[in-house]
Amino acid sequence: MTGAPKKRRVRVIPSLLISEGGLVKTTRFKDPKYVGDPINAVKIFNDKEVDEIAVIDISATRQGRGPNFEHMAEIAGEAFMPMAYGGGIRKEADVEKVFQAGGEKVILNTAAFEMPELLTRCAKRYGSQSLVVSIDVKRNWRRRWRAYKKHGTEPTEFNPVSAARHLQDLGAGEIVLHNIEREGTYQGYDLHLLSQVAQAVTIPVVALGGAKDLSDLGEAIQEGHASAVMAGSLFVFHGPHRAVLINYPEQQRLEAEVFPDL
C-alpha cells in the first residue's frame, strides 16, 4: 500500500541587493533606497527558515569592479541556507572565490553575454547546477522585449526567449527572469512573458520582478510555469507605506495557501 504522493516544495527566494555594503531596494533598477544591514537581514531569514537567498552587489557592476569577497564571506558565514551571489563576476577566478567564500551558486549577467566562454568553462568545471544567469529584461524604444546587461543599461541582441535558449546551450543551469519594468512596483509578475521563457527551455526558470503578495507567487508557478519564485520588496517592506520589515511566510502557509495543488 502506497502513501499519498509527496508534495513538491517550491523554492521561495528572497533577493537581497547590496550597494556600498548596505542592503538597498530599487525600483526599475533605479533610486536605491537604504533599508539596513544585509547581515541582520540574513539572520532574520535564518530564523524564518527560508529555502535559499540571492545576494547581488549592484554597485560592483555600476563601478566596473570585481566582487567584494570579504563582505560576501561575512554574509555567507551568517547564512544557514544556500546562498547565490552575483555582481561584478567576470573571471573564472571570481567564480572560484565565490565558492571558496561560502556561496553555493554564482549569478552571472553581463559576463554571460560578453564572455560566453566563461559560462561554458565554469559549467564544465563546477557543474551547471551552480551557475545561474539573470536575464534582465525590458522593452526597448520599439516596444520589443530585449535582454539587457550592465544592470539594465545596455541591450543585448537577444529577446528573452532567445537569450534563455542561448544561455542554456552555453551551460547555464538556471535562469532568473528579472523584469526590470516591474521591479519594485508591486504590479505582479508578467505571467505571459514568464510562461514563454519557462516553456522554451528545460532548465529551471525563476520569476523575479513585481511580486506584490503571496498570491503572485502561486500564479508564477501555476500560470507562468516558473520552477521557483524570487522577490525583493515583498520580503523587505511591509504595508502601504513600505515600512522596512524583513518578513517571510511559514512553510506551512506556503503549502496550504500559496501552492496547495502541488
Task: Describe the fold and architecture.
Strand 8 (145-149) and strand 9 (154-155) form a beta hairpin. The chain has eleven helices and 14 strands. The two termini are 22 Å apart. The strands form two sheets. The chain has an eight-stranded parallel β-barrel with strand order 1-4-5-6-7-10-11-12, surrounded by five helices. It has 262 residues and is of the alpha/beta class. It is globular. 47% of the residues are buried. The mean pLDDT is 94. It has helices at 38-47, 58-63, 69-78, 92-100, 110-114, 116-126, 160-170, 191-198, 214-222, 233-236, 251-258; strands at residues 11-19, 22-27, 30-36, 53-57, 83-86, 105-108, 131-139, 145-149, 154-155, 174-179, 205-208, 228-231, 237-238, 243-244. It has a single domain (11-258), classed as TIM Barrel, CATH 3.20.20.70. The longest helix is centred in the middle third of the chain and has 11 residues, at 116-126.
